[in-house]
């Protein structure tokens, strides 16, 4: 049942091309327009939406943070991301024009369920992005958009994360199409780009030898930092979460722009720092800005473990290691950039002799508040 792999997590990392491909399946008609029949909310109601709030926990919340950048850009709707347990008790501003999107692999996380119930009581429209048919959260929601990642057994989420980003992107593109803004036509081109992602993950998974070696060398590491910007910021958070969950190492993700406002004080000789570099064509020169962050921390002795696109030579002079990901449009990069971080955490956990699939103190779905 582990498909020839040693652990469920390793299998699930390799399931990712299929998880993304299956989640994309059947979302467009012959003309290439998005169709979301399963959504069961009228187009009129969806057109009236003036705000989105994503509620989720853990990895699912990071998928929501990634989606915020894309949905705001495409659909021109404000998107907030709330940790489900904070949302419920924070007196959130919600009405019938608010679309509350919950994201949950299991569909049973109590914190997320309570947030959805609260949103329902306040009259919001609720959509569940969920991987488990017939689970509680979709049942309690007005509508559901299933991710088709297949069963995820390892406690630490991998393929569900990629499928959640994919589904949230489909929702964002659908809203863009429906609202008919300047991005309505762009939606089809993004769908085409998304369809190329599974092949690129496949290719990326063949390049992981050096990442495995790095993890094996680093079994004694006590702290690892992660920096990212724009959609790379939640990827940094997710990379850190994977290390905490799997290898019990102190790990923190930061927004790269925040470095000079505090975290740079943490940098001393030998401190390992993963940096998720934006695609070179990311607007507002974010690529250049992150490259200078790498330069700054390298000058202070950091070991810079740089995740950069193929062909990006600007990072080379400041990188202790360069991990290459295939080229793709800037907003789709999280679907690739997170993969080496998953593989790194898996192998560091293995190198420490830990139980990859069942980390201590964690459960696959937490059904208490
Ligand atoms: C945590 C799990 O308890 O719940 C995480 O350890 C997961 O891996 C989070 O991301 C949310 O779970 P779900 O099922 O709601 O996506």
From TrEMBL:
The keyword Nucleus does not apply. The gene is glmS_2. It comes from the Bacteria. It is found in: Cytoplasm. Residues 42-181, 214-359 form the SIS domain. The keyword Transferase applies. Keywords: Aminotransferase, Cytoplasm, Glutamine amidotransferase, Repeat, Transferase. Its EC number is 2.6.1.16. The chain holds residues 251 to 619 of 619 of the full protein. This is Glutamine--fructose-6-phosphate aminotransferase [isomerizing]. Its main location: cytoplasm. It catalyses: D-fructose 6-phosphate + L-glutamine = D-glucosamine 6-phosphate + L-glutamate. It comes from Nostocoides veronense. Catalyzes the first step in hexosamine metabolism, converting fructose-6P into glucosamine-6P using glutamine as a nitrogen source. Homodimer.
């Amino acid at each position: 049942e582990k498909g020839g792999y040693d652990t469920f997590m390793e299998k699930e990392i390799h399931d990712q091309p299929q998880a993304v491909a299956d989640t994309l399946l059947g979302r467009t008609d012959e003309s290439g327009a998005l169709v979301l029949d399963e959504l069961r909310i009228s187009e009129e109601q969806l057109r009236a939406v003036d705000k989105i709030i994503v509620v989720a926990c853990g990895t699912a919340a990071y998928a929501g943070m990634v989606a915020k950048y894309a949905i705001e850009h495409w659909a021109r709707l404000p998107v907030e991301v709330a940790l489900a347990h904070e949302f419920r008790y924070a007196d959130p501003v919600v009405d019938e024009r608010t679309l509350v999107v919950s994201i949950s692999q299991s569909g049973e996380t109590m914190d997320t369920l309570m947030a959805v119930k609260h949103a329902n009581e306040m009259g919001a429209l609720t959509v569940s992005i969920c991987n488990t048919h017939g689970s509680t959260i979709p049942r309690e929601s007005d509508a559901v958009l299933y991710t088709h990642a297949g069963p995820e057994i390892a406690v630490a989420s991998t393929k569900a994360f990629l499928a959640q980003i994919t589904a949230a992107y489909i929702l964002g593109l659908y809203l863009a199409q429906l609202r008919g803004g300047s991005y309505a036509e762009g939606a089809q081109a993004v769908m085409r780009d998304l369809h190329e992602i599974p092949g690129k993950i496949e290719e990326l998974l063949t390049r992981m030898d050096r990442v495995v070696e790095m993890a094996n060398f680093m079994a004694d590491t006590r702290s690892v930092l992660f920096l990212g910007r724009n959609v790379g910021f939640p990827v940094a958070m997710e990379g850190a979460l994977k290390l905490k969950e799997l290898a019990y190492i102190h790990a923190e993700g930061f927004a790269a722009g925040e470095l000079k406002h505090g975290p740079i004080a943490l940098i001393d000789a030998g401190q390992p720092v993963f940096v998720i570099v934006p695609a070179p064509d990311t607007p507002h020169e974010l690529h250049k800005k992150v490259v200078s962050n790498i330069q700054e921390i390298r000058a202070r002795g950091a070991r810079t473990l740089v995740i950069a696109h193929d062909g990006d030579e600007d990072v080379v002079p400041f990188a202790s290691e360069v991990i290459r990901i295939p080229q793709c449009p800037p907003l789709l990069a999280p679907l690739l950039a997170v993969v080496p971080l998953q593989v790194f955490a898996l192998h560091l956990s293995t190198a420490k002799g830990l139980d990859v699939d069942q980390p201590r103190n964690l459960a696959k779905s937490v059904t208490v508040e």
